[in-house]
């Protein structure tokens, strides 16, 4: 008899243990990997069971029972608030509950658009103009060395690849974002860093490693490309041209780096400009500058990883149209300068 009781106790522990681990898995995992945004509405007066049914119908959760159990265990039945919320299928169940009980609906959000090639200072000015954050506070926070990490949110893993003395310049991903009207500087930065981590695919990271290059090198190159040309096809050619210069021990001679140093864009820079004493001066120094000169978009990053070697050695951008004009010889380049930059 004692043996039977012992067996029953063991079975009970196994079942309880299995249930516990299943419960933890269900509440801490999403219903797939799709991060496409889905607008989900909670109507005034809707009960938890109705909300669960609607979430299951939209494939945002994979278990109605575990949803209801989690809500009951957390005593959140009365905390759901009416409104439209942005969810996705990759969100863990507990995250979805947190959002739906937070009251932070879309109506309380604001849309911002960060442009490719903006620097931290540009982003800071824009956010202050939009009435979201203070320019000085955002700049100070984003420009701090990553070694100090002054944020409450966890450091994304890619940050460990950045030199400790570097700022977040280059890694604040340009995109259109929805943020809460009461967002602070850190929450905006967190959203941009998470987006960078998301957009840089595993395949891209693997290809960077295969090339024997580092993430900071790629982002630095991408930041220059972003400021030099607009079209993706041109970006790839310019990338090939610049990587060839580095391979051949030549200076990059990028006007974008002079604009970064001087803080002003010119159709054509003077000899004196090219002699400025700065580690970012790619006319005087060979190789890449110490770090990114802007925050590049996805096309510029992809161009830096996947360059096109088209046999060109020089290029310029027409001030009137923005068109990139390539040349294979120095004489041809001089003729193009006289034609388009005079």
From TrEMBL:
<protein>
    <recommendedName>
        <fullName>Endolytic murein transglycosylase</fullName>
        <ecNumber>4.2.2.29</ecNumber>
    </recommendedName>
</protein>
<dbReference type="GO" id="GO:0005886">
    <property type="term" value="C:plasma membrane"/>
</dbReference>
<keyword id="KW-0472">Membrane</keyword>
<keyword id="KW-0812">Transmembrane</keyword>
<dbReference type="GO" id="GO:0009252">
    <property type="term" value="P:peptidoglycan biosynthetic process"/>
</dbReference>
<dbReference type="Pfam" id="PF02618">
    <property type="entry name" value="YceG"/>
</dbReference>
<comment type="function">
    <text>Functions as a peptidoglycan terminase that cleaves nascent peptidoglycan strands endolytically to terminate their elongation.</text>
</comment>
<feature type="site" description="Important for catalytic activity">
    <location>
        <position position="228"/>
    </location>
</feature>
<feature type="transmembrane region" description="Helical">
    <location>
        <begin position="5"/>
        <end position="23"/>
    </location>
</feature>
<dbReference type="GO" id="GO:0008932">
    <property type="term" value="F:lytic endotransglycosylase activity"/>
</dbReference>
<dbReference type="InterPro" id="IPR003770">
    <property type="entry name" value="MLTG-like"/>
</dbReference>
<comment type="similarity">
    <text>Belongs to the transglycosylase MltG family.</text>
</comment>
<keyword id="KW-0456">Lyase</keyword>
<keyword id="KW-1133">Transmembrane helix</keyword>
<keyword id="KW-0961">Cell wall biogenesis/degradation</keyword>
<dbReference type="GO" id="GO:0071555">
    <property type="term" value="P:cell wall organization"/>
</dbReference>
<keyword id="KW-1003">Cell membrane</keyword>
């Amino acid at each position: 008899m004692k043996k039977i009781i012992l067996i029953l106790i063991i079975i009970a522990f196994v079942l309880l243990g299995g249930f516990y681990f299943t419960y933890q898995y269900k509440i801490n995992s999403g219903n797939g990997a799709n991060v496409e945004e889905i607008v989900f509405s909670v109507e005034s007066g809707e009960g938890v069971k109705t909300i669960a049914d609607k979430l299951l119908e939209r494939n945002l959760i994979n278990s109605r029972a575990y949803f209801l159990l989690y809500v009951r265990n957390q005593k959140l039945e009365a905390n759901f608030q009416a409104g439209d919320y942005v969810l996705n299928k990759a969100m863990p169940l507990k995250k979805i509950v947190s959002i739906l009980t937070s009251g932070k609906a879309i109506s309380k959000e604001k849309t911002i658009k960060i442009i490719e090639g903006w620097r931290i200072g540009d982003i800071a000015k824009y956010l202050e103009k939009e009435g979201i954050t203070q320019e000085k506070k955002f700049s100070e926070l984003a420009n701090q060395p990553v070694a100090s990490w002054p944020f409450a949110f966890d450091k994304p893993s890619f940050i460990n690849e950045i030199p400790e003395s570097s700022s977040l310049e280059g890694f604040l991903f340009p995109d259109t974002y929805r943020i809460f009207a009461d967002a602070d500087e850190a929450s905006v930065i967190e959203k941009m860093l998470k987006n960078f981590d998301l957009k840089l695919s595993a395949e891209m990271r693997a290809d960077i490693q295969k090339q024997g290059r580092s993430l900071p090198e790629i982002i630095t190159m991408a930041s220059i490309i972003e400021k030099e040309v607009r079209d993706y096809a041109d970006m790839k050619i310019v990338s090939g041209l610049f990587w060839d210069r580095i391979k051949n021990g030549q200076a990059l001679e990028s006007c974008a780096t002079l604009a970064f140093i001087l803080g002003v864009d010119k159709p054509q820079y003077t000899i004196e400009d090219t002699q400025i004493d700065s580690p970012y001066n790619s006319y005087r120094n060979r190789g890449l500058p110490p770090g990114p000169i802007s925050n590049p978009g996805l096309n510029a990053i992809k161009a830096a990883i996947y360059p096109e070697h088209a046999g060109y050695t020089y290029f310029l951008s027409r001030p009137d149209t923005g068109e990139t004009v390539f040349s294979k010889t120095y004489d041809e380049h001089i003729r193009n300068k006289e034609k388009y930059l005079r």
